[in-house]
Each structure stands twice: as C-alpha cells, then as structure tokens.
Model the fold of this input.
Amino acid sequence: MNGVELKDRIEDGWPGRARCRFDAARRVNEVTCERAALADVCRRIFHEWDFSFAGLIVEEGPDAWRLRYVFYGERDAGWVHVLVAAPLAENAFPSVVVEAGIYAADWHEREAEDLFGVRFEGHPRLGDFVLHDDAWQESVEPMRRGFDAVAAMRNRRPDADWRPQRILQEPGAFVMPIGPKFSGVTESVHFLLETVGEDVIRSSTRLFYKWRAVEKLAEGKTPDEVLLLAERFAATTAFAHGLAYCQAVESIAGADVPARACVLRVFLAELERLRQHAGAIQEICESTALVVATSQAGILEEELLRVSGNLAGHRYLFGLLTPGGLACDLPTGACREALGAARAVLARMRSLDDELRISSSFLDRIEEVGVIFPQVARAYSLVGPVARASAFVRDLRRVQPYSGYESYEFDVPSEEEGDGYARLRVLFAEARQSMRIMEQAVDALREGEIRAPVNLRGGAALGAVEAPRGAAFHWVRLDDGGRVSRYHIITPSFVNWHSFHLAAEKFAFQDFPIILSTFDLSVAENDR
Amino acid sequence: MSRWVIRGIRTGIKTTGYPRDPEHAPGVTPGLPVGDVLGAEAAALAERCPTGALDQKDGYIAVDYRRCVHCYRCVRGVPRPLAWQAGYEWAGLSGEPRAQDRLGGPFRRSIHILVVDAGDCGACLNEVKQLNNAYYNMHRLGFFITPTPRHADVLLVVGPVTDHMHAALKKIHDAMPTPKRVVAVGACALSGGVFAESFVCGRGVSEVLPVDVEVPGNPPPPLAILHGLLVAAGRKPAVPLTSAEGGM
Amino acid sequence: MSAQGWMLVAVFALCAGGALAGLIVSDRRNPAVLAWAGSLAAAAAMGAAASVLWSGTIFEATLWTVVPFGKLAVSVDRLSALFLFVAAVVLMAASVFSASYLKRYAGRYSLKAMNAWFLLLAASIVLILIADDALLFLLAWEAMSVLSYLLVTFEHRRDESSRAGYLMLAMGEAGFVAVVLVFLFLAANAGSLEFRALKAAAEDLGPTARWLIFLLTFFGFGIKAGLVPVNAWLPRAHPAAPANVSAILSGVILNLGLYGIVRLNLDLVPVDMVGAGLVVLVVGTVSALIGILYAATENDLKAMLAHSSIENIGIVTAGLGAGLIFMAYQRPALAGIAFVASLYHMINHSVYKALLFLGAGTVDDRTGTRDLNQLGGLVRAMPWTSGAMLVGALAISALPPFNGFVSEWLTLQTMLRAAELPSIPVKIVFALCGAGLALTAALAVTCFAKMFAMGFLGMSRSEGAARATEARKSSIVPMVILAALCLLLGTLPTYMIQALDPALQPWTHASATEALVPPFFASHASNGALPPAFAAEFHDLGAQVGQSVLPGRGLVVLHRGAAENPVVFAMSTSYMLVVLAVLLGLTYVVLRLWLTRRRRLARGERWDGGVRRLLPEMTYTATGFSNPVRVIFDAIFRPTTVEDTRETVAEHFRMAIRRNHLAVHVVERYAMQPARWAAMGLANGLARMHHGRLNAYVAYVLLALALALTLGLA
Done:
C-alpha cells in the first residue's frame, strides 16, 4: 500500500468526517478528522494498516488546540499525520490509548496532559508525570502560552501527602525506592519496585527529575539558538538530534542540503552510533561485573571519542551541524584517517564480541533476563536496538530514508529472543553495519559545497532520524518572523523507558542493573 | 576465565602519563577559545556567542570559560576566528581567593567522590565515567567513586540543577560528613549553560551549594575533570576561569 | 515439719487463697490479687527449691496412705528443685507482669476466672514437680493440662483461641494416654505406685520393655514438650493465650515435658540403648531446624516466639540425646557435660522466652498489633521494652555475653566429642546433627535480627505503632529483671555448671564440674590437681583475675583432655564481658574523647537516595527480610499459590496485582493430616459396626467374651 492508496482508503473509510491531503514530497498523508472519528481512524492506522506510532504533538494555536498524531509505516506507506482540532475552551479529547488500543500513546498523552492541561477522556493514569505532584501542584501547565512562571513559583503547593502508587496487594509487600541518586556514575532517575523481597513484582519508573523544559526554552528563539538546545539536551547522541532538528528546519525552508554535506552527515551519524554502541556495550559488561571486558570496552569507547574529537574538534560532535549543511568542511583525508582508526577499533570490538559469546559466566547473567516479547515491542511501538532485538524491525534509515541513506548498502540486524543477550548481539551487529556505511560514505565523498542558504519562513515540519538508541522525531514550527514557536522532541528513550518496567518485572533485584544496562536508556534524552 | 586475564595483559598499558607528563594524544580535548585583540570585529564576534562567554571591550575579547559551550561560532564561519587552545588544565577556584588555602589538607590522600547528576545532558557524566577506563584510570591517583554520601569527601555535580533535583542535591550535600568539597563540572553546572535560565533551571550549582572548584567545558574532557579533582585535593594549582584580555 | 515443707505448704496455701480471694473481690482488682498471690507463691517455691539445691538434702513427705495403692507422697530432690526454681522464676515474672497487662481484658473477659485458673495452674505445676508417686503425678498432670486449656481459651470469643485450645487439649490427652500406659505397666510390674518402688522394680526389665517404655514416654511427654512431629498444637496455642500465660506455657510447661522425659528415662527406667539416644538426638535436631525455619519466616510476633520455642526445646532434647548416647557408651564425663549443657539451655530458654513473650504482650498491648509487618520504630517510643527485647533477642540468638551463647556453645562442643565414640554410623549421625544445630543457630540470628529490626527499628508501618507509648512499670520491671538474668546466666557459666552438676550426678555418676570447671582461682583447695605447666600457662593468661570478687573455682569453662591434648575446648564469657566492656570504653575514649575531641558531633538524616520524603511503605517489611529463607528452603515450606490475579484497564493498565500464598506447616502436611485421615478412616470403619442390628451386637459380646476367656486362660 502506498501513500496515494492510503489517501483513498481514508477518504472512503470516513466520508466527510476525515479529509486527507497527500504531500508527495514529504510522503505525508495529513488526515484532518473530527474528534469523534479520531479513535477509529487511529485504530485502523495502527492495528489494521500496521503503522508505528511515532508521537503526539500538541500545539496551542491562538484560538484552538491542534493535536497531531504521527504514524510511520513501511517504506511505501510513508507517514500519516492525524490532525484533530478543538477550541481552546474544550480541552478534552478521546484517549487513543483506551479508545483505539494504542498503548504506545500512553506516555505521550500523560505528557501532554501534564504540560498543557489537555484532558484525555478515559485515560486511567493522568497526572504526576513530568511535573511531580510532590513538587508542583496539578494545576501548573507550563507549556501553555500564557504560563506565568513567577506566579506558579510563588503559589507553589506541592502535594504533601504524596504516596507512591501501589498496585501489589500481597501480605508483606513493600515498595523499594531506588534513587534518584543511586549507584556510582548514573543519571538521576527514581525506581519504585514493588516486591515482597528478592523478586521485582512490579516496577515503576519515576522520570523527569532532570526536566529542563527544553521545549519551553526554545520558544521565541531563533533556529540557530535552538540548535544549541537540540544538540545539548541529550549530548551522548548529540549529532543525531541535531540532525533531526536541522532536517526539520531545512524542510520548512525548502533548503537542499549539498551532496557533500549529506555524505558527511551520514559519516558522522554512523561514527556517533558506533561510539554510542561501544559505550552501551561497556555498560553491559560493567553491570555483569566482568572487569576485563568492561575495561576493554571502555578503551574502545574512549578511542572512538578521540577519533571524533580529532576529526571534528569535539568529542561529542558539537558545533558541526547547521541548518542547510555543516558549519565547516571536514577534509576527505581526515575522514579517511578517522575511518582507518575506527576500523581498527571495530576489529577489536569483534574480537571482544567473540570472547563474550563464549564466556559462560557472562551469558548466564544476560541470557533470558529482561525479555520483551515481539507483540509487546509492537504494542509499545518500541524503537532502536531494543525493538530490533524483539523482532520488531523498523529502522528509519531503511523505511523512511533521509540524508541519502537509500543509496547505501547495509543490513538492519534483528533478533527474535528479546532478552538481554539479544540486545547485546544487535548492538554488536549494528556497529558492524555502521562501519559498512562509513566506508561507503568515505568512498562517496566528492568535493563540493557543504552548506546551502536557508531562507527562514513560517511553517512546520517534522525531522526524523534513526538515532543510536532508535527513532528520534523533532517537530519544529517557525512563526513568520523565522523564530521557533513550537518545538517538540520525541526521543527513543522516552518510548523505550515506557516498556522498561515490563522487562524488569519477575526478575530478582540483582538482575535489575543488568536489564537496565541492556536497554541502553538515556534519562537526559527522556527528560528533555 | 584465564582467557580474559591473558587478553587484559596483552592489551598493554594504555594509561595516560598525566599528571606527571602532559598528554598530547589527538582528540582528548575539545579545546577552548583564547582571548584576543581583534579591533573592529570584536563587537560582532562577541555578539555571535550565544551564551555571552565573550566579552569585548575596546577591541579586546575576554573569554569567560565557565560559559563556553563549544559551539565553535567564534571560529567557524567567521572571517577572523578567535585563536583556539587545545589544553585541558582548566579547573579553577570558585569565588574567593582564599579558597586555595582551604583545599588540600585532609583531601591530599585518597578521596571518595560522589557523582550527582543534577540535570546533565549525559556528556559530562559520560566523561566522568571515562575516568574509570584504562586510559585515565583515576584509581591510580587515589580517586574513587562512591555511591553513598556517607563515604564521600568530594561532591562532583554535573548539570544545571533542575528544580526536581534541587531538594535531592541539598539532601545529598547535607548527608555528607565534613570536611567536604564541591566540584562543579561542566558549563551547565557553572553557569546553567544553554539551559539557563528557565523556571526549572537556575544558573548552576553555586545557586544551591557552596562550590569550591569549577571545571569549565561542555563537556570538560576527562583530563580537565581529573585536573579539577587534583585541584580539589590540593595537588595541582588552579588556573583562572576567565582569560585576561589578549591571552590565556 | 521442715522449713522446706512449710514453704511448700505456703505455695499451695497462697495459690488456693489467692484463687478464693479473687472470687470475693471485684473483677477489676483481680490482677492485683493474682500478682501478689502469684509472686508470693513463686517466692515460696523459689525458697524451697533453693534450700534443697543448696543443702542437697532431699525433702520427703507423705500426704496420706491409701491402702491398696500405697501412699500419696511428695519429694524434692535436686532435679525437682532445679525445675521448680526455674518455674518459680518465670511464674514470678509472669505474675508481676499480669498486674497491669490484664487490665486490657477488663470488662471483656472474666478476670476472676483468669486469676483462679492461673493460680491453680501454678499449684498444679509445683505439684507435678514434687510428686513422688504415679497417682499424684498423673492427677497433677491432668489438672495442669485442663487448666492450661482453660487459660489458652481465655479469650473464648475468639475462634482461633478455642480451636487452638481444643487441639492442645486433644493432643495432650493422647500423650497422657501413653504416659498412663507406661505408669500402669510399671505399677503392675512393681505392685506399687511410689516412684522408688517403680524404679527398683524396673531394674529387671528386658530390652523390649525398656524400648516400649522409652518410646511411649518420649511420645507422651514429647507432645507436651512440643517436639516434631507431635507439635502441631504449640504454634497455635502459645500465641492464642494472653501474654502472661504464653510465658508460662513456653517457659514452664514445655519444661514439664522435658521433666517427664528426664524423670522417667534417666531416673525411673534408665535408658541404656544407643538407639534410643539416637532417636532423641535426631528428633531434637529436626525439631530445632523445623522450629527455627518457621520462626524465621513467621511475621506474627508471638507465633514466631512459639516456633522458636520448638527450636530451643529441640536443642535441649538434642543435648539430652547426646547425653543418653554417651551414657550408653560408658562416657560418663561427656554425658555429664551433655546433660548440663542441655539443662542449662532449658533454663536459659525459660528465662529469655518468658522475657520475649512478656515483651511481645507489651507490644501487642501498646500498638494493637503483633504483625511485624505493621510494627517498626518502637525503640523511640518504648525504650525500656525495646531494650529488654533486644537483650532477649541477643540471648536467644546465642550471642555472647548473654546466656543462650553459653549453653548452645556447650551443646555443640559436646556433640563434637562424638569423635571419641567407636561406632562410625553414630559419628555420622552426630556430625549431621551438629551441622543441623549449627544451621539452626545461624537461622536464629536472622530470625531475631528480623524481629528486632522490623519490630523496633526503622519507621512505624502502622498507625498503632506510630502512636505507641511506653508500658507501665509493673510490665517493665519483670522484663528488666529477666533481661538482667540473661546477662547473669551468660557471664557466670562456671557457677551455673556447679549448680546444675549435683542435680545430675546421681545418674551420670560423674562430675561435670570436674570435667568443665578447673580450679583456676589460686586459693582453691584442689588447685594442686592441675598439671603445673598447664596451670602456669593459664595463670599467665589471667585466669586468676576476679578471685577477690568471686569465690569458688574460677571463671573459665574448660574441658581437659589427655596429656597430648590438654585443652579440648575452653571459653570464658566472664572475662569476655570484661574485655568487651574495656574495648567499648576504649573505643569511646579513642574515638570521641581523643580523635574527634574538637569536632562537633553532627547528626545527619538517614540516607535514602535523595527521595523527597521517605515513607514507611518504602522500607523493608518482615516478609521481605525473611524471603531469602523462604526461597532457599522452598522444598520444606512448599507454598501453594492461592491467588495470583491482576486487574487491568484497557488491556495494558494494571490497576492491581493480587497475590497470596498458603503454606501448610510441614508437620501438618506429613504427620497431622495422615494421622487425621487414618483416625477418620478407622472411625468410619468402626461406625459400620453400629448398624443397629441386635443379633450382630450379641455376636460382638460373645466374641469379646471368648477372647477374654482365651487370654485369661493363656
């Protein structure tokens, strides 16, 4: 089914209640539908036509709410944006989680409710999400246009009687709190594990301890200023997020990124993926207390950081991207040199992989722990290596290619088991594929421009990039003055954190850090 | 198991010679801009800095390292770029000049460090993590990471201190035994970085806790953080956190 | 009549008088009557017992003579006196404790009944211990059984109390039948009911008869002592009773079972079979293990203590078994040590278990719950109770310098001596039992660490626990005294050994004092008996220190072996206490007065990971604490899942997970249920004979007559 057929199906399905506009260039079907038809439309897109749910974008117009449900499918099917609008006074929408059975939208709806005060009827778990109820009163809606931060701070009324939500009813059950400060060098996040001792029976994650209100900060800033935020809100995958943001801005401006810049972007994005996967492998080895392997993987990560630093000036590739291309050219020779260095690192990574595959003490700890079943991966619309380890394969580079990925030859590795070991194997396999892409990219480097002029104008677009941890979506709306009026980031960690609790449950406490490490989740990416 | 041991031994020694010898390997640092005399173009260049790290006065440019976020906008895409230095000994003392006297002492020998993420983007934290890898191996210098404030001598804070982490950070600091030192790492922890200033983010750690040592960089490379720890231990001299006009 | 006689008369007079006085005064004043009458009677009993223990003269008296059966007689030898003294101590503590504790029942249950039953129970206990003939013994035993049933079902409106009491009575009666059979057989054999005559006549019994008598008595008294597998009543009855009665049940009545075993199998019909000893040893060890496993995983404070009673009585029984085996193998010195260790542990158990039950009663009274999952944080509101409970927990966990340590250490050391025995299979059994007891000791520590940590430390997990206040003085004083006794019994073991030894010498014919307590105090007369080099070495170690304060042989428990192995085992908790005190003092001086003298002491809040507010539900519960034990010993507990449901909304939102497990007690599963099925099967079979046909009944009568005639003729 391609985009045009889809348009016909939607228009035939709900005559008069859903209008569809197909944008062939962006391969987006924009469906504008009534509130009453929303759940039905979304259900068919998700369940019948097998689209993934990318996210929910809430925008507060001058006099109306505009909600945009974004779906993406296989390559031909393209994108579907389901739009629904309502006057500002009527802030209640049907919950697609409950009504359409799209559980993947759960956290998106909770986030929108917490930040905008939009109600989703029927959703059983609203509130106490981004803004913790024991820190802020429920009425604070910081993403609203008229939000008065000073007044909100002055009238702060945290809920003094806040108690963790407990669902386990068993004699002697209790909640084990972990964090926000726990273990050695870890990001701040709070886990509440319901248990009767030994085994985690229900795990819930309390995130957003690090919420920096990046989306609010971006409003009213120039695209160049917002780029700094896009790169820096989750800097371990800075390049991927910067790239997604730049693509959105370029899409609004209609700018054509020069070929050399596209190739360099691919090269750098894959270098970042390689480096991030090395870091993730190091974390996994560390969580199983396999000391030599931890140290070996640590060496690989540091060497790749040095390769990045040497090539681009910055170890996390800051400051290279700019809307329209790259801020400076990288000499082809330097790229080739970096490729050689990365290739040497990859060779040692493969030998580490071989060694780990025959270390029984290591395998005992990660095999058959933290299992995510394929149907769960689909129901939660999981992304990245986590999804691909559970046989849910949807890589944006392959299904919705950008920056010329369609011209590269590579495989999208996947596994069936969905356990910790499957995720580790996917990481190793993806690292090898990244090297394949980097080799092709260096060969494809031709001299030329690296930056196209960008004419900023009003509009909105979605930038989508397969970041190392999975699909990242940046929604940017520019006002007529060329300033950002709405910026919404949907990150792979936000999506995958949603399912993490399922993997952690029914396992003993000592498996918890191992399961956590195999998910390769970033709190900064989630918290924004 | 013996395979791993042999593998480890065959890897050889990777560890840097720092602090005994300087480290010159490529890619260990993103570098920082150097203050300069630019004349007429100074004002335009200072204007380009998104975080206000560049201060120009009569054609002289002074750099406040605490604010630099490595956006490279003062060197890339400008007709006359600022000079760029590739050092990493960046850590300086916070505020008062007498701070130097208070350092060292009980911190000269091995110290235990509690790392707290107060809203970090992940990069600073990742660089702190690198300190434990074979290249930097901070254990050889007597620095150890501890998960509990009860054992901690030094509190290492990364991130701009979000509202939600505010209370936790204070609690952690209170839970540490005295004497204690606070090392703030990264532009966000020093000045709020690109996240300053919103209703959930302030201008860094010093608004919440008394900071002793500041390590600029976004993120500071592992060697800079190591330098910060050595400064806190009184084993290396601190450097100024702002460049005087026209030089380092 | 002698002074001892008058004191015993006073005991009965006070008990009877108190019971009567209670009926006259109002219900409200009955606790005071109970406290006064009970404690005075206990004091009198204590006096009588002490004088016998001290002087060693056996007190004897004949109450009256019944022509065909002989006479009803009482006698107090050192063994009786020992049991009597311990019983009196517990009785006194429980009586004083009752004064304020019983007020909680005022208006709801009859305190007059409580007063009367309690005092009469005390009298019956004393009577059992001093009875010198079978009739008096059995009468007193039956009275004790019925009275304890009445006291367990004191809260008769509670279903569980009446069920538990009924089970206790039923099982007790089954044991009583066995005991009656033994006495009938012995009496028929001797033609008299007097113990002396029974004993004299029993000397000619053959091995089959001895085995039969041993098995019947061990079964009959084992039920009262709460030994596995006949202990199903104990974990229900002990917690169901009011706390003062629980203390008596655990601290005294279990001892009566042991008294019966000792009196019959050591005194009247001495057991000289190795096999019998092995049975006792194995049953004791299994009881100890099963008891502590269930104690460690139990969350009801009093039920936990009841399970732990099974454990402790198991240890005592294992010691007895070891002694019997050593006797059978002609190792009197080792047997003496084993018996001393065993009785020492029994006394210790009485003291700390009484203390713990009183404490549990106090906690129940002040917080309204006994569930450890609901308690927590009591140490701040109830410092005295908590302190006493801490001492009890340390003592029962066998940690020095408290009393549990000494007796468990001695028991384990004696078991290791089995290496000297000739038989390999016996050695293997000893080794396995030793390992079992060592595991028991380890589990006991986790069990009571759980009790104290979950009950008294941390945050209060319920309203009741949060609002608790300290108990009244009359509750605290007996607990503090018992706690002090725990320390005393733990730090002066040499004196305890010397006191216990004479009680057992008539049967072991060896002195445990000689075997365990060498005369280390320089002035002691028999000091010359020690090898000089050996004495000099211990002199250098300071084994003389303390002589000016304490008279006697010394403060070191030491078992001497042959010349090549002069010290088999040695220990001194007395010196340990001194060293401990000095070290603690030194630590304080060095740490606080010297190293940190210029530092201001800062009190930090507990570290909780930086959460905004740590809530009680975020702290470990007793279930969580003991879950590892439950998981490791899954094969014994065999929990079955009775509920595992989840409630969801919209397929994925889980609103509730309900889980519940049920674990049938292992004894219930493998002993009680089969026994119940067998009994029901038998009853059903017999019921078939009652079909109402007259001719069949006539046939039964004829058959019975024929049978009787045949037997009579034969």
Summary: The two ends of chain A are 36 Å apart (CA to CA). Chain A has three domains: 3-154, 174-206, 214-519. The longest strand of chain A covers residues 52-60. The CA atoms of residues 260 and 450 of chain A lie 6 Å apart.
